[in-house]
Write a structure and sequence with these properties.
It is a single chain. By secondary structure, the chain is α/β, with parallel strands linked by helices. Helices cover 33% and strands 19% of the residues. The structure holds NADPH dihydro-nicotinamide-adenine-dinucleotide phosphate (NDP) and the ligand O=C1O[C@H](COP(=O)(O)O)[C@@H](O)[C@H](O)[C@H]1O. The site of NADPH dihydro-nicotinamide-adenine-dinucleotide phosphate (NDP) has 18 residues, from helix 4. Catalyzes the oxidation of glucose 6-phosphate to 6-phosphogluconolactone.
């Protein structure tokens, strides 16, 4: 299945076309510290930095493809989007609509989709919360949320007023029946207004403790029944807090919903560049032959955050970094990088491959944790020139808390493709910058024929920010001598000339279209919990006695505990991003 993508600027795109690729590559001398260190000292007679360049990127529309969408001279991206991505009339029901996620991300994402004409006119949103509000008060609330969120697309004249008309609100106790009865009546009303079937997407944007009661309540009132239209449920993360609770939650959900109705959301899968990983791996012939133990030395997956707690201490103290980022987002990035090519680009084929590779990862019982993982917690430090408090000084954090805010782990994959190729995953809060990257680091050339030419090639997928893909390789420096230095061929997403859409827009639309490709399946989530179980046992162990962690073990504004360097070393080092 080929998919078009919607951008904020109103264009749509499909996975990489040759014309786009040709237009956006550029060759640039590398300037970051990491590489500078590996360069030979420049000859004294040539003080200028050499910069090899290819022409500036062209607009993606400059050259129409030879065949397929756009070959007729129309904008290929818009055509694809309009043709393929219109859901049936439906009602979106958001439980927890007064919360942070709904205000900052979900309402803006839905508004953007609607404003771009992707949700059709027969579409309604029913917000559900515990706070008493009239429809009008909710409409005001939602419009205010749209105006204040940084995620909201540019608002076209008159749009907000029309969007307001689509909004309704119900409130009540999520443990009782009444609120679900009211939601059912909203679906009846939508059916009367728009005709057709009573399709509904229920989005659970509430604390995880409410996932099960809401699912059960919807089931009790018959709202999961698909006889009058499709019914789907989107469940936010974290899906459980460990393997046992995730299994209980799955069982509870399945008492009401068939797996085909369940959409467990991981917003990293909605990020444009995460999807591009699949496009580049499986849409080109040149990468896959190298994507194995014969050529790859190791893989580094980094999700660094400069932010601290942002007022979420209540949640984070219970979760910690392993539950918050590793079990879901980083594991997803890992599976997409390591999985075999699926037989087709569809939900089951892709998810089958993801599960297979998760199964091939060598288990990490608690006794292996010291050998393959490093946990950390930030202390006071300096970020962007400003002093910032340590984790234990953040509002709402328990004194002496042992909640980890950093984790690095080495995954070993016991299959033919990856035997002996470690995958290093790291993520943490209050690191020096916000950057998410997957770097495939290749083996060194077998023979050092030239001075300076034994560096490892790196294919790096920058998930965010400055989304793009770069390939680092050695090239001859201009001059009489055969001296090599590293350069980077860099594809940047901004060459498409459009802002990237929010992952929530992508995933909401997919769920409304019944496309579960980018939503983790039950067995994936289960396997990911199994893999982090040993780490959780160590992280959650009582904070007293000789096993108590020596936290804080990295100052805010640094790249994490020193032990993480030892984990990846001695012959390898973390990329300096
Ligand atoms: N916020 C974020 O950036 C992200 C959030 N998530 C996930 O999304 C979900 C929602 O997060 P977030 O919006 O931050 O959460 P919030 O704490 O802001 O609240 C979510 C909603 O749940 C309601 N709620 C809370 N407790 C109860 C209760 N006991 N009974 C009825 N309603 C209740 C809140 O009502 P009220 O407004 O009245 O308090 C609010 O409407 C969570 O699962 C979270 O893990 C995932 C990724 C990022
Ligand atoms: O799910 C979460 O993700 C964010 C990071 O998401 P990003 O899209 O900004 O990279 C993280 O800050 C948060 O703690 C976590 O719950």
């Amino acid at each position: 299945m080929t998919k078009g993508r919607k951008t904020k600027a109103g264009n749509t795109r499909q996975p990489t076309t040759a014309s786009v690729q040709e237009g956006v590559e550029k060759l640039e001398a590398v300037r970051n510290d990491d590489l500078e260190q590996s360069l030979p000292a420049p000859p004294a007679r040539r003080p200028r930095k050499s910069r090899a360049r290819v022409p500036e990127p062209e607009s993606p529309e400059a050259e129409p493809p030879e065949s397929g969408p756009g070959a007729d001279g129309q904008n290929p991206f818009r055509t694809l989007m309009r043709r393929n991505r219109a859901p049936e009339p439906a009602t979106l029901v958001i439980f927890g609509v007064t919360g942070d996620l709904a205000k900052r991300k979900l309402l803006p994402a839905v508004f953007g989709l609607w404003q771009d004409g992707l949700l059709g006119s027969a579409f309604n949103i029913v917000g559900v919360g515990r706070q008493e509000m009239t429809d009008d008060q909710f409409k005001d609330f939602a419009i205010e949320a749209l105006k204040s969120s940084k995620e909201t697309d540019a608002i076209q004249p008159g749009s907000l007023e029309k969007f307001r008309d689509l909004l309704y609100y119900e409130f009540g106790d999520f443990g009782g029946d009444e609120v679900y009865d009211l939601v059912g009546k909203e679906l009846d009303r939508a059916e009367e207004a728009h005709g057709g079937r009573k399709n509904a997407l229920f989005y659970l944007s509430t604390p995880p403790s409410l996932f099960e009661p809401i699912s059960a309540g919807l089931g009790r009132l018959g709202l999961a029944d698909e006889s009058q239209g499709w019914r789907r449920i989107v469940i936010e993360k974290p899906f459980g807090r460990d393997l046992a609770s995730a299994r209980e939650l799955n069982a509870a959900i399945h008492r009401v919903w068939d797996e085909s109705q369940v959409y467990r959301i991981d917003h990293y899968l909605g990020k444009e560049t995460v999807q591009n990983l699949m496009a580049i791996r499986f849409g080109n012939a040149i990468f896959e032959p190298l994507w194995n133990r014969g050529y790859v030395d190791h893989v580094q997956i980094t999700a660094a955050e400069d932010l601290g707690l942002e007022g979420r201490a209540g949640y984070y103290e219970e979760a910690g970094v392993v539950r918050d980022m590793l079990q879901n987002h980083l594991m997803q990035l890992f599976t997409l990088t390591a999985m075999e090519a699926p037989a087709a680009f569809d939900a089951d084929a892709i998810r089958d491959e993801k599960v297979k590779v998760l199964r091939a990862v060598k288990p990490i019982p608690p006794e292996r944790v010291p050998e393959v993982a490093v946990l950390g917690q930030y202390g006071p430090g300096t970020l962007y020139g400003e002093s910032v408090p340590g984790y234990r000084e953040e509002p709402g954090v328990k004194p002496g808390s042992t909640t980890p805010t950093y984790v690095a782990v080495k995954l070993e994959v016991d299959n033919w493709r990856w035997q002996g190729v470690p995958f290093f995953l790291r993520t943490g809060k209050r690191l020096p910058k916000k950057v998410t990257e997957i770097a495939v680091v290749f083996k060194r050339p077998p023979l050092g024929m030239f001075p300076g030419g034994l560096e490892r090639n790196v294919l790096a997928f920058r998930i965010q920010p400055d989304e793009g893909v770069s390939l680092k390789f050695s090239s001859k420096s201009p001059g009489q001598e055969m001296v090599l230095r590293e350069v980077v061929m860099d594809f940047r997403y901004d060459a498409f000339g459009a802002e990237l859409e929010s992952p929530y827009s992508r995933l909401l639309l997919d769920a409304m279209l019944g496309d579960a490709t980018l939503f983790p399946r039950e067995d994936e989530v289960d396997r990911a919990w199994q893999l982090v179980s040993g780490l959780l046992q160590v992280a959650d162990a009582p904070a007293t006695g000789k096993n108590a962690p020596n936290y804080p073990n990295y100052p805010a504004g640094t790249w994490g505990p020193d032990a993480a360097d030892a984990l990846i070393g001695p012959d390898r080092r973390w990329r300096r991003l």
